[in-house]
Design goal:
Elements (H helix, E strand, L loop, with lengths): L4 H30 L13 H54 L8 H16 L2 E2 L2 E2 L21 E3 L20 E8 L5 E8 L6 H9 L6 E8 L2 E10 L4 E6 L5 H5 L2 E2 L17 E6 L2 E5 L6 H15 L3 H54 L3 H27 L2 H5 L1
Helix pairs in contact: 1-8, 2-3, 2-7, 3-6, 6-7
């Protein structure tokens, strides 16, 4: 077709409209087949920056949700472990009351039951999730507790018949002079033997303790305290660590006999069993907010429970079992508070989790609105433009046929 001056303007206009329509048809065909408005950012230039911002926020939100999900799983595992501890403690308290009140410690096999309970507590405190020990603080690659150090250390304790003080003399107790041999063995089997001489005519209880504590190679320490820190003050000679100790008279003396010294576990108030550190973990749950969470294995509630079970696992002495009941009862009172703290941490995590889940839904919809098209509507619009394009072609074709000769005919 040859354009003439008279028809050039109309021809150019019709051609331009047809080309635009053809381009729009191509775009709509691509949108209908892919579901997206454009294959690159240039096609949505007016919304590109908003899309990039939303995509960045969406990615960060997904990471925060992974953090909260993982942390909540850890806390729920810890909460479950503490709940199991409460069950173990409650059962053992009932058993200890039965054993102490009816003098049936041997009949109910309380020592064996307490030992098994200690093993259960150790397993619960060594709860592991995805390779992390949950009660170890920052040292999550190490078990939180060492079960070998949870048993009460061997401890020789004097009878409750004598309320001893530092100045109580051996003469006043009618003790005969002699010599003690103390053999202490640590948890690795290494033993230390030492001897302590005492003179009934000149020595008092403080002299005996000083003599024991001044032996630098000795594996034992001596102190005055009541059973479990309460009641009649007694002489205690115990292993420095958590190993065993054996004390015998090697001379003519009768200190052990007169004082009624016997092995009754009376663990010190320490946390030698704990292998972790004091680092409280935290997790990033928002752009400007971290949540500290978790409970350490040396928590006082756990310590009291281990103390009580440690005593019960080492003796059937009625007084000792009463003390054990006190420790276990205190643990039963404190453990729900520990569980409650974990519950608060979970609630705090869930608050942020809900917020991020809501934003994720909003962001996903906003991104979809920018990137995607409504396919049925796009197909309908495509049909309209295809019809218009066909009409443009027909108009161009008819315009090409216009001439003076055709008009005069």
């Amino acid at each position: 077709m040859v354009s003439r001056v008279a028809t050039y303007t109309n021809h150019t206009l019709l051609s331009d409209l047809a080309i635009r329509n053809a381009s729009r048809v191509t775009d709509l065909q691509n949108q209908a087949s892919s579901g997206y408005k454009s294959r690159n950012y240039a096609g949505i230039a007016d919304s590109t920056q908003r899309l990039l911002n939303l995509e960045g926020e969406y990615t960060r939100t997904e990471q925060y949700l992974r953090n909260t999900t993982q942390t909540k799983l850890r806390l729920q595992s810890m909460e479950s472990a503490v709940d199991s501890m409460i069950t173990v403690a409650t059962q053992m308290k009932t058993l200890l009351i039965q054993a102490s009140s009816n003098l049936q410690a041997a009949d109910v096999n309380v020592r064996s039951q307490a030992t098994q309970a200690l093993e259960q507590i150790a397993n619960l405190l060594n709860a592991n999730l995805d390779g992390r020990y949950l009660f170890s603080g920052g040292r999550s690659e190490e078990p939180a507790v060492d079960i070998e150090k949870m048993s009460a250390p061997d401890n020789y304790m004097s009878s409750s018949d004598n309320d001893l003080t530092n100045s109580t003399t051996l003469a006043g107790l009618t003790v005969t002079s002699g010599q003690l041999q103390i053999v202490s063995t640590d948890v690795n089997g290494n033993s230390v033997t030492s001897t302590v001489n005492y003179n009934a005519a000149t020595d008092d209880i403080d002299d005996i303790m000083t003599a024991i504590n001044s032996v630098t190679t000795n594996g034992a320490i001596a102190s005055l305290r009541g059973l479990g820190g309460e009641g009649t003050t007694r002489l205690n000679i115990e292993n420095v660590g958590n190993g065993s100790i054996t004390i015998t008279e090697t001379g003519a003396g009768d200190l052990l006999t007169v004082l009624g010294m016997e092995k009754i576990p009376n663990p010190r108030e320490d946390t030698d069993y704990y292998n972790g550190d004091q680092q409280v973990l935290d997790v990033r749950v928002d752009d400007r907010y971290n949540v500290s969470y978790g409970i350490l294995g040396d928590n006082p509630a756990f310590q009291k429970l281990i103390q009580g079970l440690g005593i019960a696992a080492g003796t059937e002495d009625e007084d000792a079992l009463v003390v054990a009941i006190g420790f276990v009862s205190q643990a039963i009172e404190d453990l729900p508070n520990v569980q409650g703290q974990i519950g608060l941490d979970i609630a705090n995590i869930e608050r942020f989790e809900t917020r991020h889940e809501d934003f994720k839904v909003f962001a996903a919809q906003a991104i979809s609105d920018i990137e995607t098209v409504d396919v049925p509507l796009t197909l309908a619009e495509l049909t309209q433009h295809e019809t218009a394009l066909q009409a443009s072609f027909i108009a161009i074709s008819r315009a090409a046929d216009l001439s003076l000769a055709n008009y005069l005919r």
